[in-house]
Amino acid sequence: MTTPTFPEGFLWGGATAANQFEGAYLTDGKGLSIQDLMPKGITAPPTQEPTPDNLKHEGIDFYHRYAEDIALFAEMGWGVFRFSIAWSRIFPNGDEEIPNEEGLAFYDRVLDECEKHGIAPLVTISHYETPLHLAREYDGWTDRRMIGFFERYARVLFERYGHRVKYWLTFNEINAVLHAPLMAGGIWTPKEELSKQDLYQAIHHELVASASATRIAHEIDPDIMVGCMIIAMPTYPLTPDPQDVLVARAIEHSNYTFGDVHCRGEYPGYFLRTLREQGVELEITEEDRETLTHTVDFVSFSYYVSICATADPSKGEIGQGNIFAGVRNPTLKESEWGWQIDPVGLRIVLNDYWERWGKPLFIVENGLGAKDELVDDAGADGGKTVHDDYRIAYLNDHLVQVREAIADGVNLLGYTSWGPIDLVSASTAQMSKRYGFIYVDRHDDGSGTLDRYKKKSFAWYKNVIATNGASLT
Predict the structure, then answer these.
(1) Mean pLDDT (whole number) for 48-73
(2) Secondary element (H or E) of residue 287
(3) Which pTM was predicted?
(4) Under 8 Å CB-to-CB from 276, ≥6 apart: which residues?
(5) Which residue of 100, 177, 230, 361 has the smallest Cβ count within 10 Å?
(6) Residue 320: is its pLDDT beyond 80?
(7) Is the pLDDT of residue 315 over 90?
(8) Is residue 176 one of the residues assigned to a domain?
(9) Looking at residue 116, which CATH number applies to its domain?
C-alpha cells in the first residue's frame, strides 16, 4: 500500500485573531470592543471600563510588528494566513455610516506584506470582538438592527479588499454563542439572565447576517469564496446504552444546526423541535427565509478536543473543552489545560462534515496550548528556543489523521494551525497558554520584551510544508 498524500495546492498556514495579538487597542481611531472589557477571558464577568491587567490591550503588538511577523510566517513556507479584521477599527462604535480610513489602511498594509511573500489571506470578518457600543446599546445580536450594521461592515470590507482576498469567514465559531453569549454574540445581558427566546433570536439574526454577507460578496465578485466557521467537538456516547447515544446525538445536533443552515439554507427539523419544546417562537420574515438560501462555498472549523456524553451523570466525570465541556473520555490523555487529545476525532469530523454537507472543508484552527520554557541554545537564531517536542507530536498525530481523511475522499482546502505565534488566550486571557511555533517574550504579568524566538516546532512545520506532508511520521 502507498502512503496517502496531501493534494497539490493544499494550503498550509496559521490562524490568529485581532483581539488576541494586534494590540494598539485605541490606536488610529479604533473604538473599544467587548474584548477590551474581558481581561479574564470567558472565565469572569466583564469589567465596566478597560483595566490595565488586560493583556489584549497590547497583545503581542502585531499592529506595529506585522512586517516582521509575516516574514517569519513566509520563512515557514506558508501559503495562507488566517487573520481577523477588528470591527471596531473599521467602525469604532459599529453603527456609524462612514468607516474609519486609518483602520482600513492598516489592513491594506497587512495585505501588502502577504502579497509580497506570496501568502494568500483568509479573513475572518467577526472574531469574538463585537464593538462595545453595539453590545451595550443594542444588547448585541439580540437586536435585529445588528443585521444592517454587519451588512454595512461586510460590504465595506468586500469592496475594499475583495479583489485581494479570495477566502472569507463570516463569524468565528458561530455555535459558541450557545455557551458564551457575550464573547460570540456581543450580548451584554449576563448569561444567567438571558432568556432562551432572546438567545435563539440572536442566533437567528447572526445566521441571517452571515447569509446576507455571503450574498453581498458574491454580488461584488462571484469568485470570492465565503465560508462559515464552527467549533467541531465530536461527542461520543460514554457507553453503548441507547440513551447515551441519544444524548450524544442531541449535543452533536446543537452544533450541526449552524452548519446545516449555512449549507442547506433552512432550519433542520430537529432544531425546530428544540424551539417548540423550549417555548421559543422566532421572528422570521419572508426576507429572512430568502436570505438564508444564500449558502456558503465551504465549511471551516476549529478542532482541539472531543468529549463524551451520558444520560446518567453519575457515570462520568466532567472534563474540559473549547468553550464548552463534556464528560471525560477514559481512553484519552489530556493537555495541561485538561483538553483531551484525540487525533482520530479529527478524521471522524472531516468525514462526518464532508458526508453531511458535501462542501469543501477547511481546518482553520488546531493546536496544543502548553506552558513552554524558553532556554538558551547556541544553535538557535537569537540564541534561545523552546524544545516543544510535545507540540510536534500533537500536530504530527493530527495531521496524519488529516492525511487519512483525504485518502477517505474528503475535499479539504487547507490547514491553519491555531496561534502559530504565541498570543493571548481567548478562554483565559493568559500568555502562558502558548500555542505558537514562535515564542513571544511576554508573560501573564504583562512583563517581557516582546522579542520573537523560533521554537523547535518552527523548523518541523517548515519541513512539513516543504514536503507537502510527506515528512509526517
Answers:
(1) 97
(2) helix 286-292
(3) 0.97
(4) none
(5) 100
(6) no
(7) no
(8) yes
(9) 3.20.20.80
